[in-house]
Every structure is written in C-alpha cells, then in structure tokens.
Design goal:
It is built from one helix and three strands, in the order E-E-E-H. By secondary structure, it is α+β, with helices and mostly antiparallel strands. It has a three-stranded antiparallel β-sheet with strand order 1-2-3, with no helix packed on it.
C-alpha cells in the first residue's frame, strides 16, 4: 500500500530516453531506467535545469 507520508515524492517521467525521476521534499532525487553513466549525467543536468527554470527549486551554489 502506498503511504504518501512515508514516501512523498513527485514523479516525473521522461519519454526519450525512457526514464523516471523521483524528487523528494528533502531535496534528494532518484533517477531510474538509465543504462549508462553518460546518459544519466545528461538527463540529470537537463532535468535540474528545467526545475530551476520553472522555479521549482533554487539554483545551488557551485
């Protein structure tokens, strides 16, 4: 059974390449269904950029 209090994450699905991101309130993010590290880095960078652009998150200091 799904318990939203214990597992509160926004689920974002990407069509190409087929992937899913789980974004948690604590600031953690999980990406699934990516098979190689290069694609993973690209997808995480693109997804994070979209989150910053839509002001869903603040840009982290580098």
């Amino acid at each position: 059974m799904y318990e939203s209090d214990e597992f509160s994450a926004a689920v974002c699905k990407v069509v190409e390449p087929n992937a899913a991101f789980l974004v948690f309130l604590a600031g953690k993010m999980v990406c699934s269904d990516i098979v190689d590290e290069e694609t993973l880095k690209k997808m995480v960078t693109e997804f994070y950029s979209k989150l910053v652009k839509t002001k869903a998150v603040e840009q982290a200091l580098k």
